[in-house]
Structure formats: C-alpha cells, structure tokens
Amino acid sequence: MTVDRRFIEHFDWVLLLSVLLISAAGVLTIYSASATPYGPQPTLYLRQIYWIGVGLIVMLAAAATDLNTLKRLGPVFYAAAVILLLSVLVMGRVGMGARRWVQAGPVSFQPSEFAKVFLIFWLASHLADRPSTSGLRLRDLARPAALLALPFLLVLKQPDLGTAAILFFVAGTMFVAAGVRLKPVLALAAAAGAAFFFMWPLLWGSLKEYQRQRILVYLAPESDPLGMGYHISQSKIAIGSGGFWGKGYLAGTQGHLAFLPERHTDFIFAVFVEEWGFLGAIALVGLFVFFVVWSAEIAYRSRHRFDTLLAAGVTALFAWYTLVNLGMTMGLTPVVGVPLPFMSYGGSSVVAGLAAVGILMNVRLRRFRIFG
Amino acid sequence: MMLGGPLPDRTLEGEALLAGLRRRWKGLGLLWLVLMGVILLRLWTLTVFYGEEYRRQAENNRTRVVTLKPPRGILYDRNGTPLVSNLPSFDISIVPEDVGEEKEVVARLASILRLDPDDVEERIADLKLRRPYEPVKIKENADWRDVTRIEARRIDLPGVVVEVENRRRYLYDVLGAHLVGYIGKVTPEQLKEDLYKGFPREIQVGQYGIERSFDRFLVGQPGEKLIEVNAAGREIRLLGRREPTPGDDLQLTLDLNVQRAAEDALGDRPGAVVALDLPSGEVLAMVSRPAFNPNDFSAGISGSRWSRLRDHGGFPMTNRAIQNAFPPGSTFKIAMAAAGLESGVITPETAVTCTGAIRFGNRDFRCWKAGGHGRVSLHRAIVESCDVYFYELGRKLGVDRIAETAKALSLGRQTGIPLPSERGGLIPTAEWKERARGQPWYPGETLSVAIGQGYVLTTPIQLATMSAVVGNGGEWRRPSVVRAVRPHADWTFRSLEEAERVSSEVKPETLAFIREGLRGVVHEPGGTGHAARVEGLDIGGKTGTAQVVTLRDRRESRETRFRDHAWFVAVAPVANPRIAVAVLVEHGGHGGSAAAPAARKVIEAYLAPKNNPPPPGEAS
Which pTM was predicted? Predict the structure, then answer.
C-alpha cells in the first residue's frame, strides 16, 4: 500500500490531538492512582502507554483501509463479534466475579471491547442497505434487533451489565438516526414497559447478587454503607473534595489511601478531579465534548449513508461511554462498570477505542476523495 | 416508502435520505449536549457548591473496613465429645499508617512485650502486600498482663491495637492429629479457589486433614464492619456491620476411646493404625507416628518449630495411614487365597507339601519356617502363613489374575477417603511392568508377589479396607471420616450422604472361608496371630512381616532401619464383624509379636470397653 498524498494532506490531526490529550491525562492519572506507597502495580501507566502505541498502529490501519470493501463484509463482522463473545463463554478467564477475559498467547484481552466496534460496523452496513424514506417500521427493526439480541445476551451472561447497556444505547441511537416511525416504537415501548412490570420478579431472580445489589444501592445508596454505596459516596467525596482548584497532582488522598475502588479503571475520573479540581475537570470534560462534537461532525458531513451511520455509531459509542461513566462517578447513574474512553486503564478498551477513531478518520478522508 | 435493495446516495431519493439522517443526527447530538450540561452542573455542585463539605469529609475520612472472622465449626467425635474449641485470645497489632513517630512507638511497644525492637520493625517491613491500614500482627495470643499494660498506655501508643481472635484449640493435642489436621493462614494460591473467594488474607483456613477436606463446612463466611477511627486509629464510631457466618459443626466418625487405645497401642513406634466400623466403613481411629501437635499451627507456627518438624527424619507431617505405601507381606495372602478360590485354580481342599522351600528357575524360594510345614491345606496355610503354599498358588495363578482380585479387594488404588494426598500404592501386572520399566514380567517375580513382596505396595487404609471387604462378605464402602453436619444455629446434626457402596464381586462363600482362616490365625494352635487373642472376643486376623531389604539375614539385624515392617490386619467378631483394623509398625519385626497386640487393644476398646461404657444414646 503506497501512502496516498491525500492521506497525509487531509489526515485528521485535530481528532488525533484531542484523543492524545485525553490519553495523556489518563496516563498521568493512572500513574497517580497506582503510585501509592503500598500500590501493587506501579508500572500500570507504562503498560497503558504501550497499549496506546499499539492502538495508534491499529488506528492508522483502520484509517487507511477501503471502507467499501469492509462494508460488504458486514455479516462477517457480525459473525466475528459473536465468535469473540462465544470465546469468552468457552475459554474465558474469570476476574472480579465475571468471565470477561480471554487469553491469546501472552496477552489477555476483553473480546467484548472489540465486539462492540464490529457490531457497529455490521449494523451500519445493515441499516444502510435497507433505506426507507418514511422511517423504519417495526417489521424492519425486527431483524436487526433479533440479531443483536444474541451478542447482547452473551455480554449479559459474562456478566457485564455496563457493556450490555452501552450496546443497547448505541444500537438505539443508530436506529433513531436511521429513522424509525415514531408511533409503533412508542407502542412497543409501552408494551415492553408492561411486560417488564409483569416479568420483573423473573428478571430480578435471574440477576446476579451483585447486580441486584448495584440496582438497590443506586436507588438508595445509604442502604449499603459497606459495599457499593461506600464506593459511590467515596467517589463523590473524592470529586467534591477536589474543590475548584484541586489538591494538586499526586496530592489526592482519596485515591491514594485506597478509599476509592477501581480507581485506575472505572473511577479514574474521581481521582482526576480530586487532584485537578473543577477547573481541570472542565478542561477534561471540554476535551471529551470537543472530541464527540468533532466526531459527530464527521458523521454529519459524510456524503454516504453508510459512512454517516458508521461514524454516528462510533460517535454514539464514545458519547454514551462518557456520559454513563461520568454520571456513575458522580452518583447520577447506576454503577454498571464502564470505562472512561482513553482515560481508564485497560489494553482492550484503548486499542478498540483507537481502532474506532481510525474508522472516524477513514470516514472523514472519504470526503476528499473522488465520490463513488 | 420502502425501497428495495441498496440505494445509491447520489440520486434524488438518496439525497433525501441523507438529509433526513443528518437532521435526526443533529437532534441526537443536541440531546447529548444537554445531558452533558447536566453532568457539568453536577460537577459544579459537587466541587464548588458542596466542595468545602466534601473536603472536610475527605480529611476526616478515617473510615476503615475491619474483617470480622467467623468462628470455625466445632469437631465432635462420634459420641458427641468435642475435639476442638475456639478460645478467644488477644492479638496485639500495629497499624503503621496511624503511628506518628514510629521509632518511639515501636520501641515502647517492644519493651512492654519484651521483644527486640528490630524484630518488630522487621515484622512491619515484612508484610509487602499489605493493604493500607491493614494491621500487622506483633504478638499473637498475648497474655492478660500485656493487654492491660497496653490499654493503660494507649495515649503513648498510637496505631497499636488489641484484637480479639478466636484461637483454634485442639483439646487432645497430638491425638488424631493426622486425621483432624490443622489450620493456618490462607495462602495466595488458596485465595484463588472458589471457596475462599473474597476472603481477607489474614484469615485462617484448613490446611490439612479434615480441617482442609471439609473446610467448605467449617470455615464459615467472614463479615466486616465499617468503623470511623480517630487520628490514632482507634474506633470511635460504628458505621455499618455485616455479621460473619459461623462455620458448621461436624460429627466425625472418630471414636475417641478407640482412637486413644490405638494411640496408646502404637506408643512411640513409627507406624500407623486404622480402624473401620463395619459395615459402614466409617473411620473409628487413624493414627500415624511420629505425629505433630496441631496446636502449634493455630497460633502461626514459629520458624524453629516448623523447621524441627520439617527436618525430623521420621516425617511427622506425613499421614502414614494414607500417604505411605509399604509392601503388605503375608497380609497379602488374604488376597491370594481369594484369587485362588475365585479363579477355581484351587479349592479349599487343595493341599501342598511344604518342605521349607521350593525351587523355581535357578533360585530357592524359602518358607519363613526353615523346616517346612509338611502337608498343608488352604486353611492351615492361612493359619500358619505357609509361604510355600502361596508360592505354588501364585505360580498357578500368574500375576495378572492375582492383580485382578487384589484390586477388587481395594488394594493398589486410592480408597477415596476424603482426606488430602491419599496415595494409590501399587499392584503390579505384566502390562504395568512393560509400561513402567520397559521389561517383560518374569515368572519368578510372581512368587515374590504371592507373599506380598516385590513390587506390591499398599497403604494401611487399603489393608483395613480389604479386611472390611472380607468382614462384610464382599461389599465395601469408601472410608468416611465425617458422619453428620450441624449448620450453625441449628440444634441437630444432619447425616451426610452415605458413602457409595462398592461390590468387590468376590463370592460371599470365598470370604466366609477366608474369615474362618483368619479366626484360625488367632485361635488355632500354630496360628501366627495368637498374640491378638483375648478372652471373650472372637477375633480373626492375619500377620504380615514385610522385608525392607532383600537380604534374608537382615531379618534379625540390630540396626532398626533394616528390620522388617510388622503388619496385622483383623476383623471382629468373626461371626458378625463390626470392626476392621490394620496395624503397621515400621521396622517393628514380626507382625505376630509387634503388631497383633496393638490390633487386639483397638478391637477391645470398641467391642468391650472396660472403663468407658458407651454414653447413653449410642445405638449400634
């Protein structure tokens, strides 16, 4: 593959810069979060840098691949996602009470992180191939919804409530963007609500104990001062105690004294705000907003329905992640365990995230090519 | 309007679709921005509006999660006598984070406890994987005087805490140590097991014996409490508490009287005793010598004690009853007789003339009785333990047929007793030798096997189980060590699932004939086991004297390590067996003189207890 002159000329440096800034903040915060006097893994930040490096290569590859070819491979992406999730079920490693990791040679990774991107790919191609000027009817939605149910249930089985929720929101966003007829969907929602009401005892019974706990604690955090409620309130204390100016880098106490759970992964935002304060948080959230708006703009300006849907799906993925994670650390949404994109420690989410950024770049680049 | 198939984007309809897509996308984006606005508002509220309040909370964030250890289940013998207890004891610990000027506090504490300050420092530095605010144990099982001194000077000792612990106390010390086992701090490997998932690292769990195999009942579930502490790390307020779940109590199959008799009978001699209840297969007694004291482990064994146990030449940490395999010697003739009768190679009437040796190949195989036994039937061959008879029988049977019956009688494989690390022993076959040694089986080797020598290796529990099969008339059960479990806060014990029955497929008539032979060993003139005879008890048994080295003239050697292993296996009463026993005395010499009396004492303790009548309620 020769490097196209236009590839360099129109490369989305702005998007890359915003992602790198967020990642840098992540590495700094991971360092701080794990650099306790008794910290078990002070080299976590190095591994994060390593994964960012790997991710950037994957990103470039994703940006330079011919999207038209990939679009035709839609069903293959779907199959790949399902196989990835099945591999977790078959040979997954259990960690923190859930089966989420798979060992591949020397590295273990979370297949669900990649499966999400694959599913967006498939759904975009699926919806692009079935246009409807007056909106999708329920009948049109049934097929993709049924197909999505399988990976959704597989993720739920791990169990990974956070990823399942994100999957649901992203697919919903893509459906709405593709256009659905409002009335039947509302009717369906009402029916689902009723079904949920009557099926609730059954559903409740099928949840894992800790999942029930999380829902209960979300509804009433004070009910469990030892467990999850403790985590939420400690997270809020960390954020709140940062104040306007923050306590200064490496000067946070909540994070360092291990009052915060998952402080280098899901609750990394709390560690960040404790040290950088409202001011730092505004800058960081601003970066995220900029990143999402820029991505949305890529989707908006694309000249192909597939491209738009694809970029929209990827954007929705980041948008929902950001919203749910920030909401969770501040006690606005249930603690479902989703990472903050590019901030949270985790090789799989970093590499998959950067691959998704590569897709966005790819879509943007197609604006500058000969229309086909 | 639904359009079939892909639609080119650059048509009029395509543009319309794209326009609609963009419009909705814009709407979704605006919705997200609004939600992010809520997030920012929340951020502002938390950091700026309530910032002061949270900052104060963070500064006073002296909440600690303290583990509440569950009391372990209590072990009872089969008659309800407790074997262990959980005694509250005081541990003195230090929380390094709460210690101000550490040197001085450590020095003060060391002087109160009469410890070397450097040792204390070392203990603190040693715990690398400690969680923040996890206390470091400085002195375990501290006496009351130390505790009061520390409480009196608590202002001078920030970070020093006194914790109440339940200390496992084994009431009879070494008695039944290998069966009961011991506990110790959970290991990093154990923490990965499902049973101990989420356990705090300072908790003690079963490490050996029943304490380990049945830890799923005994260990319980730890609880925790969330406390608020002051600047010196002392609890000032309880914020939340999750009670620990105590472990379940277990009723063992062990009979304290029988166990005590077995311990006394073996004395200080290295060896093992196993006694099984019939027909249940319940382990009434299990002794292994030399032994250890499980109480040494409960408080965290000291380094010197542990190295003394480890370097002890007699391997006190090994349960010889299940973990060591020895040649069974003449006790194996039970299996031989069964194999001969079952295969039809001999009948009870088949007789052989013993001249003191037979020649096979170019070697003399000698009988233990130099002059020979003369003409002996199968019954007399068992009674007098005639080697020549069984050489002849072995020659006719061949090694594979011997192995078939021996295995059916539970030899050469794990009995499945629910204790850790049971050895399987070995019953050789031609195929085994080919595979393991790459050599063909030599017929001469069959003759060694016929008298329980050569490659044959059995554990004491296997020989006890073989006796149980003979006593039960063909059926046996996996030896069990726990009878019943009593969930905590419950009044009654519930029986555990009965051990599976295994049919040996040896005919009852065959075993009845062998039992007569065993009775003869003890009661008939010329029997090798008359030392097991006791007034009023119908005991049957078989002696075994297993060579340790092949040189025949080592038999009477003064040097202990060359002396033979003495065996005695027994069932009683022969008419209706209720107990099966196997006794091994390592390097004890003759089975008849060294092991048989011990078996007799064990049987007496169970069937005719003298000073300890069974407590009321004991039905049998």
Answer: 0.62
